[in-house]
Amino acid sequence: MPKTTLHNLNGMDEESFVAAIGHVFEHSPWIARRTHPKRPFDSVAALHEKLVATVRVADDSEKLSLIRAHPNLVGRMAREGGLTRESTAEQRAAGLMKLSPDEVAQFDRYNAAYHERFGFPFIICARENKKDAILAAFPVRLKNNRGQEIDTALGEIYKIARLRLIDAIDED
Prior knowledge:
By secondary structure, the chain is mainly alpha-helical. It has helices at 6-10, 14-21, 30-35, 44-56, 60-68, 76-79, 85-93, 101-118, 131-141, 146-168, and strands at residues 4-5, 169-170. It has 2 domains: 4-65, Orthogonal Bundle (UraD-like), CATH 1.10.3330; 72-156, UraD-like, CATH 1.10.3330.10.
């Protein structure tokens, strides 16, 4: 998707706005749609704050749907090429696309244990972490309670969205 400017984004109708930034929250364009009326945005950081505020006031089922919209790291979708362009690039940047069979099996075990415990995929900002840090985070986070992990997952989603916004929008 080509970059747009903040000035152009502020002038877009709802459909164009959602088309331009609806992807920053994985398979959840409703966040951009609900944030559109809050224009104009003074900066990409201000836009990010408003998008995050939209998620924070969403109901619990919407937040869980947002979390569940994310793929497993090194999961079947990744191995079969079924991720979004953004998720593919993020997993590649973390070194997750060229793993040994043992490492893939380790991710599969952790993903399964995590999903069994919490009912949603493990989410971490892959662009801010590498393979070893991600693998080390699984056992630590598996000790959390579900509420802590919902909060942690949303915090990681906010980081992912911020980086995707930076990729999609040029400050004027």
